[in-house]
């Protein structure tokens, strides 16, 4: 019974991460309520774990949140990305964090290359106004059509979440 509840909560967290990725592409913003929901959903799971494991999860989440805020202050990561990362790190065992961060960094690089491709490749550039019109003025596509260099890192976070939650 408890395993079913934990699995259901994990699926909810993955769905929230995918929704955060959608919002990041659509609005270049991840709402605080998404990160808060991810963190709050961990509370019932914490009651099923031994105290030392809860402490390890909490320390991992705090460290990732702190590093995320440092990257935010340096202009390398969005504030919503940093908060979402901290909340998701609560869910990961300390041994899973390196794999999660590596997958996120690699997929983030792919998203960044896609952003450059959209800006530099003429065959792709002509689609930006069409995609921007469909997605709205605040979307990633609109920013790219204005020649802004932005990367919706929520996509990389969601992919890393999907992979880490269900393979490790």
Give your account of this protein's structure:
By secondary structure, this protein is mainly α. It has one domain. Helices cover 79% and strands 0% of the residues. It has 9 helices and no strands. The protein has helices at 2-27, 32-46, 51-73, 79-90, 97-120, 122-125, 128-135, 140-145, 154-167. Helix 1 packs antiparallel against helix 9, helix 3 packs antiparallel against helix 4 (79-90) and helix 5 (97-120) packs antiparallel against helix 9 (154-167). It is elongated and about 55 Å long. The relative contact order is 0.17.
Notable traits:
mainly alpha; elongated; 168 residues
Percent strand equals under 5%
Please state the oligomeric state of the protein chains shown. single chain
Instruction: Write down the overall geometry.
Output: elongated
Mean of residue pLDDT values? 92
Number of strands: 0
Q: List the secondary-structure elements in sequence, H or E.
A: HHHHHHHHH
Count of discrete structural domains: 1
Number of helices: 9
N-C termini distance: 21 Å
Helical residue percent? over 70%
Q: Which regions have little confidence, pLDDT < 50, spanning 5+ residues? A: none
Supply the helix-strand structural class. Answer: mainly alpha
Main β sheet profile: none
Radius of gyration: 17 Å
């Amino acid at each position: 019974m408890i395993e079913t509840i934990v699995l259901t909560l994990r699926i909810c967290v993955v769905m929230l991460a995918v929704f955060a990725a959608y919002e990041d592409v659509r609005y270049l913003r991840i709402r605080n309520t998404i990160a808060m929901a991810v963190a709050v959903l961990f509370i019932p799971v914490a009651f099923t774990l031994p105290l030392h494991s809860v402490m390890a999860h909490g320390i991992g989440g705090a460290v990732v949140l702190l590093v995320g805020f440092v990257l935010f202050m340096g202009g390398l990561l969005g504030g919503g990305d940093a908060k979402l990362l901290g909340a998701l790190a609560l869910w990961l065992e300390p041994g899973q964090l390196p794999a999660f961060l590596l997958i996120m960094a690699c997929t983030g690089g792919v998203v960044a290359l896609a952003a450059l491709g959209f800006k530099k490749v003429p065959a792709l550039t002509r689609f930006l106004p069409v995609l921007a019109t469909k997605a709205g003025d605040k979307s990633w596509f609109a920013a790219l059509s204005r020649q802004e260099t932005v990367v919706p890192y929520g996509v990389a976070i969601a992919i890393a979440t999907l992979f880490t939650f269900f393979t490790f």
